[in-house]
Amino acid sequence: MLKPPLPLRSLLFLQLPLLGVGLTSKVPMPNGNEDIAADFFLTATPSAALSVSTLPLPEVQCFVFNVEYMNCTWNSSSEPQPTNLTLHYWYKNSNDDRVQECGHYIFSGGITSGCWLQKEEIHLYETFVVQLQDPREPRRQSTQRLKLQNLVIPWAPENLTLRNLSESQLELTWSNRHLDHCLEHLVQYRSDWDRSWTEQLVDHRHSFSLPSVDGQKFYTFRVRSRYNPLCGSTQHWSEWSRLIHWGNNTSK
């Protein structure tokens, strides 16, 4: 004898587990003290659907080049999708505390990745406040406070010159574009008999004397500069100068 068919409502209920819809499963916690109600329909959310507003913005790095211009850049590739982030800035406790948007964006692959500020926009000894923002998610923003005097990178020393002070003594001189009173320098030198550089820190002056040289050796010199503690606390050196040589390069 055939059994009567199940009601339509019962059939739908039996199929729900196959569809993974609307069932609540009790999952024991590791400590066994409580359960978590896991609704399969509501919790199976793809990661791409997570709110963008919860993602942190990349860090902004600013450097002042020879107090002639400043670049503030960020890693645009860290965004989950290409985003033209915007940058606003102002100076804290300044007579000019207007909030301004970057006027000259730097682009990487067609996406904003930095901001260029000209000399007139740089107030070296006032707290620089920079704010990065996602225009699609206005609440997604980050703010940093920077001391620009600690972020100065001077140009490399120029016009390196060597002259003999005596038969065995050399003097190296150089010049810097601007910032002369605020710079300290690092001189490195070695002969063709040396495997490593010898270095000497030089404060304020633009000269260095090597008291004893061997005329049978071939010497190489180079110099780099940075903002000294009187003007800022930067640890960022300039690029090295071009190399300059002295002596007999046929030795060995």
From TrEMBL:
SMART domains: FN3 (SM00060). Residues 1-26 form the signal peptide. The keyword Oxidoreductase does not apply. Keywords: Cell membrane, Disulfide bond, Glycoprotein, Membrane, Receptor, Signal, Transmembrane, Transmembrane helix. Residues 156-249 form the Fibronectin type-III domain. It is a single-pass type I membrane protein. GO terms for biological process: immune system process. It is found in: Cell membrane; Cell surface. PROSITE patterns: FN3, HEMATOPO_REC_S_F1. GO terms for molecular function: cytokine receptor activity. The gamma subunit is common to the IL2, IL4, IL7, IL15, IL21 and probably also the IL13 receptors. Interacts with SHB upon interleukin stimulation. Common subunit for the receptors for a variety of interleukins. Probably in association with IL15RA, involved in the stimulation of neutrophil phagocytosis by IL15. PANTHER family: CYTOKINE RECEPTOR (PTHR23037), INTERLEUKIN 2 RECEPTOR SUBUNIT GAMMA (PTHR23037:SF47). Belongs to the type I cytokine receptor family. Type 5 subfamily. This is Cytokine receptor common subunit gamma. It comes from Crocuta crocuta.
